[in-house]
Amino acid sequence: MTKKNLFLILTAIALGAVYVIYFTDWFRPKTVQIFHTYRNLRPRIQREGVLSALNFGISRQLRLTDLKVVSLLAWQTNKNALPVWHLISNSNSVPVKQFFYGQYIGGMKPAVQGVRSQPLETNVTYRLFITAGNVIGQHDFELK
After folding, report:
1. In sequence order, which residues have a C-beta less than 8 Å from that of residue 98 and are 6 or more positions away?
2. CA dist list (Å): 36 to 18, 42, 43, 50, 58
3. Residue 14: pLDDT over 90
4. Side-by-side strand order, sheet with 34-39
5. Are 72 and 96 in contact (CB under 8 A)?
6. Same domain, 88 and 112
7. CA dist., res. 108 & res. 13, Å (int)
8. CB 88 within 8 A of CB 65
9. Most Cβ neighbours (<10 Å): which of 85, 97, 113, 116?
10. For the whole model, what pTM was predicted?
11. 75 shares a domain with 54
């Protein structure tokens, strides 16, 4: 093999590596879009001071491995802030595309045995973190 052929092969490999790193998403973490909405589960019953159900949606169906809701202010000051709702999955969880705050999701359990979701406060910003294998996502929301 001549020096010219070796140089051309190495140049082709280098250009291929540059293409894969900068123009594909092979090495980037996969993200997901999350949204929230409020659903009144009993529209005929209007009660003062009762919050409607908080519903989260995901852009595609996922098997969640970790789900956590923390106060954004507490999380910004301490990355290990105590969550108000935290579920984990050690094995297979049920694929979900939407879920309610505090809902039991099949195949997932509370991170701390016996701890349930805490009630959310109004006018406080919260952040939802989800992980599904190598797919990660986060979403900020606030109850009005």
Report:
1. 55, 56, 57, 58
2. 38, 18, 19, 18, 9
3. yes
4. 34-39, 53-62, 96-100
5. no
6. yes
7. 44
8. yes
9. 85
10. 0.74
11. yes
Q: What is the number of domains present in the chain? A: 2
Q: For every residue of 5-73, which 3-state class applies, written as one string?
A: HHHHHHHHHHHHHHHHHHHCCCCCCEECCEEEEEECCCCCCCCCCCCCEEEEEEEEEECCCEEEEEEHH
Tell me the per-residue pLDDT of 77-119, one tens digit each, with 9 for 90 and over.
998 899 999 999 988 889 999 999 988 899 999 999 888 889 8
A 10 A CB-CB count for 67 gives 23
> Each residue of 14-23: b (16+ CB within 10 Å) or e?
eeeeeeeeee
Same domain, 10 and 76: no
> Range of 20's domain?
1-28
